[in-house]
């Protein structure tokens, strides 16, 4: 699973960790350290030490002291979780620090907020915050990835230059979907939302997605991912007639509870042969419908039908299926 | 391997205390035969228990193997008729300790007092801590008051500042009764475990890891386990190998790290019988890079806390992007690693875990006897 390991690459650059030890008192006099050319890596600042005593903000302050951040192009916020504290406070401190340091990052184009593995904190329990302020503080940003959705919000969001927006969650609240759908992203080419399950506030319905499916507010969109959804079949049925699909190059419906019902809806809807790629990996599809998908779309469309280990369970006469990343 | 002649084994005869039909015993005897030694005599745990002990000859090298996977032995030691039951480990601990203490004579490759520590995770944690070996934080290290119930467990976790922890039965093995517990300040809770609860409330180890999300379910499991003794450890985030969180079983024989198994799983519990997969040892070394030597040294330091036990299986948790390592467990019977051969450069290079012990035992035994025995005690040649 994607949150089984930390990122090794982001924004097209290899990830490099700011050494946590530099924020410890015994390294207070250290004025420099060995690192690759600043612009050649995606810098990660995170609490990764198992016995770490240093808070994320202390780490970030030290990072600002020791690194010429003006040339940084990609930045990864690693774990800020301090399990002894109120969960909302640490992330708000992270967001405040990033906004306050806006002038120190004139070259920043790609930001990952929450490179946190399930060993550190399960995706459904990661607290985020109000991110409109963050996006406003970095108007040159072209890519943002957000992991986790507790307390996440994007009130009145608008961003001129953002090309890629990805929200990875175990449950994306309908309120957030509506805020994003109502936002203005004139340059956005790549939108990826992990809808998740109602168990973790993933309560968005098709109506909440309607503006995205219409595509009016997303004039540049070329790639749409509506992934990891408990209602993946309904999402497929909606996409079968969604106006936005005609201008997409790539569609990602992976990781959710996709069954023959959803695949049949896709096959029975508008043509998809203009797509370069259709990602359906992690699915509950029968061999018959896979064959129909292949016949209809391959080889023109690059098709990913890997079951990805999706397994139907029966328990006391009931059938249980799960999204890929639900905890 | 060059077959060992009886002369090479120092004139000793091997004997195994175990459950004879178990594959551990079969594999050990096969390794001895392959090394050119007479087939080791087997002393059944069941007989030891029934006879109230066993006496070994002076030239017998005594290997203790696990008393597990035998329903009758299990019934006597734990008082349960169904081996999948989780409960009964406190009774097992007392009974097994008494059985070990009832063995007399011979040349022993273990030590009853050390086994008593190895089979109590709280005492084991305290011993490692005292030796300065890196272990996860724990509020139950050493001889502290036992955890009474769920409320007590939560209070101890809160006092220790642990929101995520592994809760283990003190005398458990093979992930039995282990809960990976996550608590949330807003009151939410989640436990990941192989424990299954029957309608009557009895607990069974299953082959599937499951999640519990309600406090009442989790509290019921903990309350039921508490009388057997519980140990709490900080949940140290494991680093990943080939995209999945991973831990390492490192066997230490006669003081040297000899065998390695990496276990990868998307679940916090990595045991192979619960869906964990073996990872590539070369990938482990590559992931750890320059830090690999320290990993092996840490395993050896953990084993050195048990100087009178020839062989232990040390579970190592790689963390901080493979730059640091923490000891998860030290297992007395951690050598069932079929088809795994010794690490290149180790004294057991190319040998399986049993062959490695057969080769190491005579010299190790002599050295330990010399180190611990009074000057004038007779050491068999």
Q: How would you describe what is shown here?
A:
The complex is a heterodimer of chains A (327) and B (381). Chain A has 327 residues and is α/β, with parallel strands linked by helices. Chain A has helices spanning 56-66, 88-100, 132-137, 174-181, 206-214, 232-239, 260-268, 287-297, and strands at residues 9-10, 13-17, 42-45, 74-78, 110-115, 143-147, 164-168, 190-196, 223-229, 250-252, 277-279, 302-304, 313-315, 318-320. In chain A, the strands form two sheets. Chain A has a twelve-stranded mixed beta sheet with strand order 1-2-3-4-5-6-7-8-9-10-11-12. Chain A has a two-stranded antiparallel sheet with strand order 13-14. The mean pLDDT of chain A is 95. Chain B is α+β, with helices and mostly antiparallel strands and 381 residues long. The longest helix of chain B is centred in the C-terminal third of the chain and has 20 residues, at 353-372. Chain B starts with 12 loop residues before the first strand and ends in a 9-residue tail after the last helix. At the A-B interface, loops of A face loops of B.
